[in-house]
């Protein structure tokens, strides 16, 4: 069924509340919000998952099904809403004319520009980085209040907490295995301040580059920090995890498994990498980010835990948790194995 966007809660009487967003900014706005622009697909997913998808009156290019063939089915309901283009430099006129009441932003978005450009149109800016697992969990009650979707937000919070309980119980006293995380390009990693780093820590691992301090966690560098390949060899990780294949990072439609296998083999074949413990033990993993980043990357943390400690989490059904995420997105569940690959198959 195609949603009629902009009609959500149109019969509900709005009231004014003040919430404190992720950055400590107090934002006063009428609720429930009837129209929103989420500035990245992570934001779009959360709004839809709590049951407020009909409020989305414009999307960025990452949530436009007309521009993303692998997500054409997943984001199909947004095929006819305006596309504001690049999330790092959106078309402000498109957003202003969309009827949006709120610009739902991340801390690494151009939210300051949004305040300047959209305030004259009465559009409020709320910053909640939905790719950051801890921030998402802390802010879910606020997100529920904003959209009058407290029940949906509580359901997501429960899913998050259920995963957190598994991680806490199963990883108790587990030795921290070392991890090299590679973000969709050779020798590009993620460091503290990034949600990718958080998945490693929450999943019971130790990022081999956890000592790198960028300082500004709003900087893109925390997600895409280039390292010397010799440093990777010297730090000798127990596990290697690589995001993406051939420039692609995410898609509801699964990729050809051979592409995942080829990427894993390219990693193994790098000069000097045969000495790395992860390569010797065949603990090299490649993933499609569609699953890994679900629920602010909390699903990714569970994936990491199962990879690092398969014996401790042998009976944990990843598919069951993934299905609880996909159901409120309005699409059929898929097995987690569609999005994950281990060296050797």
From TrEMBL:
Family annotation (Pfam families): Peripla_BP_2 (PF01497)
Organism: Xaviernesmea oryzae
Domain Fe/B12 periplasmic-binding: 35-316
InterPro entries on file: ABC_Transporter_SBP (IPR050902), ABC_transptr_periplasmic_BD (IPR002491)
Record-linked SUPFAM superfamilies: Helical backbone' metal receptor
Identification of the protein by name: Iron complex transport system substrate-binding protein
PANTHER family assigned: PERIPLASMIC BINDING PROTEIN, VITAMIN B12-BINDING PROTEIN
């Amino acid at each position: 069924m195609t949603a009629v966007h902009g009609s959500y809660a149109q019969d509900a009487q709005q009231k004014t509340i003040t919430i404190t967003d992720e950055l400590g900014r107090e934002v006063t706005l009428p609720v429930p919000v009837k129209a929103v622009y989420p500035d990245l697909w992570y934001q779009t997913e959360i709004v839809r998952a709590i049951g407020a998808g009909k409020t989305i009156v414009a999307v960025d290019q990452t949530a436009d099904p007309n521009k993303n063939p692998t997500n054409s089915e997943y984001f199909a309901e947004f095929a006819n809403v305006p596309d504001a283009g690049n999330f790092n430099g959106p078309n402000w006129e498109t957003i202003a004319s969309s009827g949006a009441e709120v610009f739902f932003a991340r801390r690494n978005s151009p939210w300051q520009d949004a305040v300047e450009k959209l305030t004259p149109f009465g559009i409020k800016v709320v910053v909640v980085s939905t790719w950051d697992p801890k921030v998402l969990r802390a802010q879910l009650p606020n997100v529920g209040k904003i959209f009058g979707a407290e029940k949906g937000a509580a359901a997501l919070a429960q899913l998050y907490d259920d995963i957190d309980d598994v991680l806490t119980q199963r990883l108790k006293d587990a030795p921290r295995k070392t991890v090299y995380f590679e973000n969709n390009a050779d020798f590009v990693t993620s460091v503290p301040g990034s949600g990718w780093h958080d998945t490693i820590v929450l999943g019971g691992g130790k990022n081999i580059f956890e000592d790198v301090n960028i300082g500004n966690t709003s900087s893109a560098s925390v997600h895409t920090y280039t390292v010397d390949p010799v440093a990777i060899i010297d730090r000798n990780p127990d596990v290697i995890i690589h995001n993406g294949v051939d420039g692609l990072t995410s898609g509801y439609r699964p990729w050809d498994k051979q592409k995942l296998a080829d990427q894993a083999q390219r990693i193994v074949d790098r000069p000097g990498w045969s000495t790395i413990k992860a390569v010797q033990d065949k603990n090299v993993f490649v993933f499609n980010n569609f699953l890994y980043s679900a629920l602010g990357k909390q699903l990714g943390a569970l994936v990491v835990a199962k990879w690092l400690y398969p014996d401790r989490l042998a009976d944990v059904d990843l598919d069951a948790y993934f299905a609880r995420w996909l159901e409120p997105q309005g699409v059929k569940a898929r097995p987690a194995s569609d999005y994950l690959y281990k060296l050797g198959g």
